[in-house]
Automatic annotation (TrEMBL):
Residues 32-167 form the Gcp-like domain. Signal peptide: none annotated. This is tRNA (Adenosine(37)-N6)-threonylcarbamoyltransferase complex dimerization subunit type 1 TsaB. Its EC number is 2.3.1.234. It comes from the Bacteria. Keywords: Acyltransferase, Transferase. Coiled coil: none annotated. One of its GO terms (molecular function) is tRNA N(6)-L-threonylcarbamoyladenine synthase activity.
């Protein structure tokens, strides 16, 4: 087994290789505006570090969000393209689950990433491997009662200390954590998400109201 994992649902652009036992190579950088420029070089670095070529990959794992439209689609399109070219399966995982898994917590907590517009993408967890609510997008103040007293993982939590006073790392998802979680799920025969974007809200670009279609005569 050689899993290639990627994620671009947060400002982190991250790629990793996992051989079924452990992460053998990983590359991450944080730049919310350069997902498209940074992801393929990151993949090249982890392949070079592991001393393998792309055709050695047996499956691709991708974070499906939730995340902003522009960044999120970079990782998903890249993962789907690799899967198609290599003829290997592409597995989707919730990006919040990757952050939860990396936390290693064995107590109830919440994961929150920055959704911009003064909102967070968030979900509640019973432990690092057990999510107990569906991912959602809300203003921190609107969920204060639901997350009160819980440790909080992710950059979204650190942005709003009044709602998440017990904010902890990691702030961003790592492809290594996604790959390790995927390896566990494959070994257990668990289901994955389809490699499709989890946006939770409409993109900013929309067709204007009262838009008139002009047809040629």
């Amino acid at each position: 087994m050689l899993l290639l994992a990627v994620d671009t649902a947060t400002p982190a652009v991250t790629a990793a290789l996992h051989d079924g036992n452990s992460v053998v190579a990983e590359s991450s950088s944080v730049d919310a505006r350069r997902h498209g420029e940074l992801l393929l070089p990151a993949v090249d670095r982890v392949l070079a570090e592991a001393g393998v070529k792309l055709d050695a990959v047996t499956a691709v794992v991708t974070g499906v969000g939730p995340g902003p439209y522009t960044g999120l689609r970079v990782g998903l399109v890249t993962a789907s393209t690799f899967g198609s070219v290599l003829g290997v399966p592409v597995y989707g995982l919730c990006t919040l689950d990757g952050l939860a898994y990396a936390s290693g917590l064995e107590e109830p907590f919440v994961v929150a990433t920055d959704a911009r517009r003064k909102e967070v993408y968030w979900a509640r967890y019973e432990s690092a491997r057990s999510r107990v609510s569906e991912p959602a997008v809300d203003r921190p103040a609107d969920i204060a009662e639901q997350v009160a007293g819980l440790p909080a993982i992710g950059a979204g939590a650190s942005l709003y200390p009044e709602t998440f006073p017990d904010a902890r790392g990691p702030e961003y998802v790592s492809a290594g954590a996604l790959a390790a979680l995927a390896a566990e799920k494959l070994a257990a025969g668990d289901d994955f998400l389809p490699p499709l974007p989890l946006y939770l809200r409409r993109p900013d670009a929309q067709v204007p109201k009262n838009y008139k279609v002009v047809t040629p005569k």
